[in-house]
Structure formats: C-alpha cells, structure tokens
Design a protein that fits this description.
single chain; 2 strands; elongated
C-alpha cells in the first residue's frame, strides 16, 4: 500500500499526493548527498577520515574497521528492501507497452513505473555514496543503510495517513484487490470448465466406440444368420430331389413287374 498507487488512477488529488511525496523523498536524499561531499571547507560534511598520519612518523595507518562482511550484509539489506519497489515499477512500465490498455492508462502506467524505479535507484545510489563517505565499521554501515531505507518508506506513511483520514481516498487499492480476486476466481472456473469439457469429449469418444463395436457385432450376426438360412434351403432342396428320384425308380420297377404279369396271362393260340 503506497501513495504511488495513485499513479494508475485518474484522480487529481491522488496524483498531487504522489508527486508531492516523490519530491519530499528526493529532497531528503539530497541532504545525504551534500553531507557525503569531501569539502574540507564545509563544516557540515559528514565524511570520516580513517587514515591517521602521526607527526612523529611518515607512516600512515587506516583505522577503519569496515570489512567485506559488513558490505555483504549491507547488500542483503538493500536487495531485500528495494526489490519490491523495483519489480513493481518494472511491471508498470511493462504494462504501459501493452496495446490492450487505453492510451491514457498506458501513459499513467509509464509515469508511475518510471517514478517508482527512479526513486528506488536514487535511494540505492544515495546509500552507497553516503556509506562510502562515513561508514568506518560494520555496525555503522548497517545503521546508515537502515536510515536510508527508513526514508524509502515515507510513501507508505503518507498512504496510511490518507487512509486514516478518509478510507474512500484509498478505496482504489481495495477495488484492485477485489478485482484481482475476481480474476483468480474466473480463471479457476475456466480451468474447471476446460477439464469438464475434456471429460465430456472422452465420454463421447468412448460412447461412439461402443456404438461402433455394437453395430459391427450386429452386422456380423445378421450375416451369419443369412448364411445359415441359405444352407438350410440348399439341404432341404437336395433331400426333396433324392426322394423324387427314389420314388421314380420304384415306380419303374413296379411297372416292369406288371407288364411281365400281363404277358404270362395272355393266352397264345396254338397252331398245329
């Protein structure tokens, strides 16, 4: 929650609050820059001289206790505290390049991202310059880094003050959170719909395969029944033909017997 969130809105009051906060932070950091200048004629400088050269010898010695471990701790602190603002500013600049947003929105995103990245990088620069000028021990470099980081939180204090005065002035942040939550819910529902659609498609494919298999089985059974019916007709025809042949043969034999009987019964006249 930062007052710089007003850069993505079209509220005039919010832009004035954000630009005023930005100017105040830059002004505070300028004090540190002036205090780190190596100007021997200015008594307001904070620079620390660690090299000591006694009058009775020509050998000078460095009295600083600052080690690489102190600088490593300092780097960890700066990265941990400033990464969030840098990433947020870079995202705003990235979104300003998308043509899906309106022209005015893209301008607001670009200005907001540029201001946020600029103040963050300036805070890092001020911290490095000031620590190189006055830090003489590991504890001192950490304390100086914390002071500079304390100034970078100024925009959040202003936002908290505005929220305490009137919650409607900071309602855009809550609306943004609700919008993001709604987008997440919509994305989740779309994912569920895609999964259901895939399940339905698989069920339809399975059903089609079963219907095709059933149709093939029915066609096979129908073909087999037709083949068996034709065979029965052929067999029955053949049986009937055999019976007719046998009956015809028996009739011929009976006829021959009758003829022979008639021949014996006929009286043949005897001629002397």
């Amino acid at each position: 929650d930062s007052v710089y969130s007003y850069f993505v809105t079209d509220k005039v009051f919010g832009w004035l609050a954000a630009l005023t906060t930005l100017g105040i932070q830059f002004g505070i950091f300028v004090f540190f820059i002036h205090a780190a200048e190596a100007n021997l004629q200015d008594n307001r400088t904070d620079i620390q001289f660690t090299w000591k050269c006694p009058r009775d010898t020509d050998v000078c010695s460095n009295k600083a206790d600052l080690t690489d471990a102190g600088w490593a701790t300092y780097c960890v602190l700066m990265v941990a505290f400033l990464s969030t603002d840098m990433i947020s500013g870079a995202k705003l600049i990235y979104h300003s390049a998308k043509i899906t947003h309106s022209f005015k929105s893209r301008i607001r995103y670009f200005v907001g991202g540029t201001c946020l990245c600029s103040i963050t990088l300036f805070a890092l620069y001020v911290s490095i310059v000031y620590n190189k000028a006055i830090a003489t021990s590991n504890t001192q470099i950490i304390l100086t880094a914390v002071v500079v980081l304390f100034v970078t939180e100024f925009d959040r204090w202003i936002f908290s003050i505005l929220e305490a005065i009137n919650e409607d002035w900071t309602a855009h942040v809550a609306d943004s959170g609700d919008e993001n939550e709604t987008k997440k819910q919509i994305a989740s529902q779309q994912e569920e719909l895609r999964n259901l659609r895939e399940i339905v498609e698989r069920m339809q494919e399975s059903k089609g395969q079963r219907e095709q298999t059933t149709s093939q089985q029915e066609d096979r059974k129908s073909s087999e029944m037709q083949s068996s019916g034709h065979s029965e007709n052929v067999v029955s025809g053949c049986d009937g033909h055999s019976e007719n042949v046998v009956f015809g043969c028996e009739g011929d034999m009976n006829a021959q017997q009758l003829e022979s009987v008639h021949v014996h019964d006929i009286a043949v006249p005897y001629e002397a």
